[in-house]
Design goal:
By secondary structure, the protein is α/β, with parallel strands linked by helices. Helices cover 32% and strands 29% of the residues.
Length: 291
């Protein structure tokens, strides 16, 4: 990375050894780190994002915040407003936007025809989930952002059904997004025995399967009858694999170097937080909600 790693801050003092491994400074209090850095990555529990991010911005530091930006949309908007007032870069770690398979899928959608429906899945068995939020904020923030990025807009309506095995409010959720002419179906799970990050797009001219983990894509094309896709008529799309998190960090550094202050996608990160809120509301009430 074209930057100097200066130090890390963590309330867990065992991270002192990690700092020693990389030859950087360790601080238990992140505020003691701020005077010696130009930019900060916040990779802390979601419930702490807002206050830590606000403190960093007020100290004049460019900021990359892990997803979600905050746990309520008001706080998310406050951070965006603060970054603009301070003339600072603010990015959110929605790293699927830098996944080569996602970028290629967005390109393929231009010629896929009319979308009939989309399924997005983010699932694995999570034995140590975060304590401050459920699967909707934890995994759903990825898929909501993915839907916005791929489709260019938010849905018109939403319905969520959430479930749990423990005292948590949501450990798995099925969410239906109504886009008017088509639907997007989200599967989120901390309970699924297999790790899956994938998608299907069913459209009039082609149907596309994407594995975001493996960064592979297969496109099925129609037979003579319009809209009818044969399972044996497919082509594997070649994708140059890259590490999405590394690409996200590289983009953040470039933004800092070239003074690209708050970009449009940060406003979309606020929309993601709002969609998570609405999904929780729908899951509690058992009703469809207008977005």
């Amino acid at each position: 990375m074209p930057c100097e790693l200066v130090g890390l801050a963590d309330i867990d003092i065992t991270k002192r050894e990690l700092a020693k491994l990389y030859g950087i400074r360790y601080y238990k209090d992140f505020r003691n780190l701020l005077p010696i850095v130009d930019a900060v990555t916040v990779a802390t529990p979601a419930s702490t994002h807002y206050q830590i991010a606000a403190d960093c911005l007020l100290a004049g530091k460019h900021l990359l915040v892990e997803k979600p930006l905050a746990l309520n949309s008001h706080n998310a908007q406050e951070l965006v407003k603060l970054a603009k007032q301070c003339n600072l870069v603010l990015e959110v770690g929605h790293q699927y936007r830098t996944n080569p398979a996602v970028l290629r899928l967005k390109q393929e959608l231009e010629n896929a025809g009319n979308i009939q429906y989309v399924t997005l899945r983010y699932a694995n068995l999570n034995s140590h989930p975060p304590s401050d939020c459920g699967v909707i904020f934890d995994y759903g923030s990825h898929l909501f952002d993915l839907a916005i990025f791929l489709l260019g807009r938010t849905p018109e309506k939403m319905y969520c059904r959430k479930n749990h095995l423990s005292s948590r409010s949501d450990e798995s959720a099925l969410i239906l997004l109504d886009y008017g002419g088509f639907i997007v179906y989200l599967e989120l799970s901390w309970l699924h025995p297999l790790k899956r990050r994938d998608a299907w797009v069913i459209a009039s001219k082609s149907s596309i399967y994407v594995d975001f983990l493996q960064q592979t894509m297969r496109k099925y094309t129609p037979e003579n009858e319009p809209g009818r896709v044969a399972s044996d008529l497919h082509v594997d799309i070649q994708i140059e694999k890259r590490e999405p998190l590394k690409e996200k960090l590289r983009h953040f550094i470039e933004c800092v170097e070239h003074d690209r202050i708050v970009e449009d996608h940060v406003e979309e990160a606020c929309q993601v937080v709002r969609l998570c809120e609405l999904a929780l509301q729908s899951g509690e009430n058992g009703c469809e909600i207008a977005v």
